[in-house]
Write a structure and sequence with these properties.
6-stranded mixed beta sheet; 17% strand; single chain
C-alpha cells in the first residue's frame, strides 16, 4: 500500500503547512517578542530531569508552534540532565512538559520544589508550565497539526482554552 502511504504523507504535510500558516496569525512577528520556551522532560519517581535542546525534536516542536527555543541561545544540544544553572541561564517564559512527567513531580508546585532556582525565571515566577499529552507531543505523526495548534494556543491564546 505504498501509494496510500504517500497520499497520507502528502495530506499530513499539507495540513501541517496550513496549521503553521494559521499559527503565524497569532504569533508575534518579531523573534524577540516570542515566548522564550524550554522543553523539560521529567520522571520524578525515577529522579530523571532532562532539558531537551537542539536536535532533540522538542526544538522543532517549539519553533513550529511559534515559540522561541532558548536551547540554541544557551548552547543546549540534545537531551541533557537539567540543572539549576541551565534553567536560570535559559530564562524561559514558559516550560513545556509531558503531562505524565509533570504529574510525576507533583505538578507545578512539585517542579518548583525540585528546582527552586526556577523561581528566578519568568516561567517559574509566573508558574507558566504547559503540559502536553505524552503520547502525542513528540510523535510527529498524522496528529502533528493538532499538536502544533494546541501548543500555539497554549502559548499565545491560553484564554481560548
Amino acid at each position: 500500500m505504498p501509494e496510500l502511504g504517500r497520499e497520507l504523507g502528502e495530506r499530513t504535510r499539507a495540513k501541517i503547512v496550513e496549521t503553521e500558516e494559521s499559527i503565524a496569525s497569532i504569533v508575534p512577528g518579531s523573534e524577540t517578542a516570542r515566548l522564550r520556551t524550554v522543553f523539560l522532560y521529567a520522571r520524578g519517581s525515577a529522579g530523571v530531569y532532562y532539558m531537551f535542546g537542539q536536535d532533540s525534536g522538542a526544538d522543532e516542536l517549539i519553533t513550529a508552534a511559534g515559540g522561541y527555543d532558548v536551547s540554541t541561545e544557551v548552547g543546549w544540544k540534545g537531551a541533557k540532565p537539567a540543572n539549576d544553572e541551565g534553567l536560570i541561564a535559559a530564562q524561559p517564559d514558559v516550560i513545556v512538559m509531558m503531562s505524565k512527567g509533570l504529574e510525576s513531580v507533583g505538578g507545578v508546585d512539585g517542579l518548583l520544589e525540585k528546582f527552586p532556582a526556577l523561581a528566578q525565571t519568568p516561567a517559574g515566577a509566573n508558574q507558566r508550565v504547559v503540559a502536553m499529552n505524552d503520547d502525542l507531543v513528540l510523535s510527529f505523526g498524522t496528529r502533528t497539526p493538532a499538536v502544533l495548534n494546541a501548543l500555539a494556543v497554549a502559548l499565545y491564546a491560553p484564554d481560548a482554552l
